[in-house]
Specification:
This protein is α/β, with parallel strands linked by helices. It has nine helices and 14 strands. It has two domains: 5-77 and 178-252, Rossmann fold, CATH 3.40.50; 82-175, Hypothetical Protein, Haloacid Dehalogenase-like Hydrolase, Chain: A, domain 2 (2-Layer Sandwich). The strands form two sheets. Strands 5-4-3-2-1-12-13-14 form an eight-stranded mixed β-sheet. Helix 2 (23-34) packs parallel to helix 9 (242-252). The termini are close together.
C-alpha cells in the first residue's frame, strides 16, 4: 500500500497508559519520516508540551480539530464566538457543572473549579467568571458524570457546534467544523497528499470521523466497539505498541 501520511490519536492510541511514547514507537515514527511519510498526532488535548516531543512529528491536530499545524505554521483553525457560547457556559455554571473554556492563544484553562484537583498535571488554569471572559473559545469541556448532565448540556447547546462525550465522562464542545477529519484533510492538502494515501489510528468515538476519512482507518485493540466497527483494521492495544507494530508490518516492511 502506498501511504504518504500517518495520523495518530494520542491517549489510548500512541501513548502508553502512563502517558509516554515508547522508544519502539518513536523509532517507527522516525523510520516513516526518513522514508518521506508525514506523521502527525491528532488529539483532544490543547497543551501537549509535557508529553509529546514535537520534533518527532511533521505536524499536529489539537483540540479535536480546532487547530492544525504543519510544524509551527497554523494551517487550519475553527473557533466559537464567545457570544454564541456564553449562555451555555453560564447555564453549566449555574447548574454546578465543572466547566472549562479555552482559547487558541494562551493555553490557559478558564474554569469554575480547581482544575489541578482533578488533573494535577494541569497547572495553567484560572478561576473565571464566564460572564466576563472576552475571548472566543476553541474548546469547552464539562465534567458530565450522569446522563442527566449530558442531556442538560444538549438542551442548552447553541447552533453551529459539535458535542462529544468521552469514555471518561468529559463532554467536549467545539465549532461544528472543528473535527479531526477536516483538520487532517487540511494538512494533507497542504502537503499535496491524497485521502487514499493516509492511514489513521484511534480508540475513542471522537476518532471515528478521522478513521472514516482516511484511506485506511485502524482501531486500537483497546478501542471502543463502535470504533472497531468503523475501522478497516484492528491492531494490538496501545500498551503493546499496536499502532507502531501495524505501521512496521504494513507500511515499512513491504
Amino acid at each position: 500500500m502506498k501511504i504518504k501520511m500517518v495520523a495518530l490519536d494520542l491517549d489510548g492510541t500512541l501513548l502508553c497508559n502512563d502517558k509516554t511514547i515508547s522508544n519502539y514507537s518513536k523509532f517507527v515514527i522516525q523510520q516513516c519520516r526518513e522514508k518521506g511519510i508525514k506523521v502527525i498526532f491528532a488529539t483532544v488535548r490543547g497543551t501537549t508540551d509535557d508529553i509529546v516531543p514535537y520534533e518527532l512529528f511533521d505536524g499536529c491536530v489539537k483540540k479535536s480539530g480546532a487547530a492544525a499545524y504543519a510544524g509551527d505554521k497554523l494551517i487550519y483553525e475553527r473557533i466559537m464566538p464567545i457570544d454564541d457560547v456564553r449562555a451555555l457556559l453560564l447555564a453549566c455554571d449555574k447548574a454546578d457543572l465543572k466547566t472549562v473554556a479555552q482559547n487558541s492563544t494562551d493555553g490557559i484553562h478558564y474554569a469554575n473549579f480547581n482544575v489541578s484537583e482533578m488533573w494535577p498535571y494541569i497547572t495553567n488554569f484560572k478561576i473565571a467568571d464566564f460572564a466576563l471572559i472576552k475571548f472566543d473559545a476553541d474548546k469547552i469541556y464539562i465534567i458530565t458524570e450522569t446522563v442527566g448532565s449530558v442531556n442538560f448540556i444538549k438542551n442548552n447547546l447553541p447552533r453551529g457546534v459539535n458535542i462529544f462525550t468521552s469514555r471518561d465522562n468529559i463532554t467536549f464542545i467545539s465549532h461544528e467544523e472543528a473535527v479531526k477529519s477536516k483538520a487532517t484533510a487540511a494538512l494533507a492538502e497542504h502537503w499535496g497528499i491524497r485521502q487514499d494515501e493516509i492511514v489513521g489510528f484511534g480508540d475513542d468515538l471522537i476518532d471515528i470521523d478521522m478513521l472514516q476519512y482516511c484511506g485506511i482507518g485502524v482501531a486500537m485493540g483497546n478501542a471502543l466497539s463502535e470504533v472497531k466497527e468503523a475501522a478497516d483494521y484492528v491492531c494490538d492495544m496501545n500498551e503493546n505498541d499496536g499502532a507502531a507494530k501495524w505501521i512496521e508490518q504494513h507500511i515499512l516492511l513491504p
